[in-house]
Structures are given as structure tokens and as C-alpha cells.
Amino acid sequence: MTYRITLLGKQDRAAFASGSEPLDRYFRERATQDVRRRVASCFVAIDETEAAAGFYTIAATSLVLDKLPPEQAKRLPRYPVVPAVLLGRLAVASTHQGKRLGGALVADALLRATQSEIMAYAMVVEAKDEQAARFYEHLGFLRVGDDRLRLIRAL
């Protein structure tokens, strides 16, 4: 199956079901508001039938320099915080799970972050649980600090 990843538009989201009710509700009811308020960008994977197969959001954030692993922090200027991109939400419709779409969405987010004219040092994720954290580790993210569900990947 092939997918096209595009900015959130007028896609029908009513039937989207990923198995995570909070993510599904966000996509159906709040994503448009966040985009309109300029607090997050939302990108949607569209399948061959023009249905939403998955989505992710990204937004600006920052990382406290002292919380980064020493091997990463030593390469950065001594600012108290460094700019980053937050991969805020990520979900794949149940009918598209197991097809590597989640990894493709993360890859798309990383590509957009590195191609942006606004510089950021890393992408940050707040995994919802240990299984999600392992998914992000598989994609090259590293756990940081005391919060075992917070991971980063240098851009």
C-alpha cells in the first residue's frame, strides 16, 4: 500500500480508530483547533482510498542543556536551553497497523524538522507507555533524564 503524507485538511476523520481513544478523540475533535491556534502542525497519511491512515503532530519545544546526556551536551553551546521539535502525537489507524506506517510517519517528521529553516537540535517524544518508548528506541531515539518515557533524537 502507498501513502501520501500531507498537512491536515478537510479529510474525513470521523471513522479514524487507532485503538487509543485519547489519540482518536484528539484527531477527530482538537487537531484542527491546534493548527488554527498555531500550537502544532498536524500531518496526515492518506491511503489509496483517500482515508486517513495515520497522523502526527509537531511543535516547537526546548531541552534543558543540563538534562541532556554529557556526550551530547558537550557539543552544544552553553545556553540554558536548546531548541528542539516535539513529536507530540502519533497514531496509526488499526486497519493500517503492522505495515510500518508508524515508522514512516516518524521518518517524515524527522525529515520535515531537518529541512525547516528554523533550526532545532533534536526531536523530542513523550512516549505514552513502555511499548511506545521501545518503538521510538528502535527508530534511534535515546532516553534522557529521569523520565524513562522521554526520548530524543539529534537531528
Architecture overview:
- The chain starts with a strand and ends with a strand.
- A seven-stranded mixed sheet has the order 1-2-3-4-5-7-6, with helices on both faces.
- It has a single domain (4-154), classed as Gcn5-related N-acetyltransferase (GNAT) (Aminopeptidase), CATH 3.40.630.
- By secondary structure, the protein is an alpha+beta fold.
- The chain contains four helices and seven strands.
- It is globular and about 50 Å long.
Topology of helices and strands:
Layout: E1 4-7, H1 21-36, E2 41-46, E3 52-64, H2 70-73, E4 81-92, H3 101-115, E5 122-126, H4 130-138, E6 142-143, E7 150-154
Parallel strand pairs: 4-5
Antiparallel strand pairs: 1-2, 2-3, 3-4, 5-7, 6-7
CATH H level, superfamily name: Gcn5-related N-acetyltransferase (GNAT)
Using DSSP, what is the number of strands? 7
- Please indicate the count of domains: 1
What is the level-2 CATH architecture name? 3-Layer(aba) Sandwich
Tell me the distance between the termini. 28 Å
Catalytic activity: glycyl-tRNA(Gly) + acetyl-CoA = N-acetylglycyl-tRNA(Gly) + CoA + H(+)
Protein name: GNAT family N-acetyltransferase
Domain N-acetyltransferase: 1-155
Keywords: Acyltransferase, Repressor, Toxin-antitoxin system, Transferase
Give short descriptive properties of this protein.
155 residues; alpha+beta; Aminopeptidase; seven-stranded mixed beta sheet; 7 strands; 30% strand
Quick structural gist:
The chain is an alpha+beta fold. It is 28% helix and 30% strand.
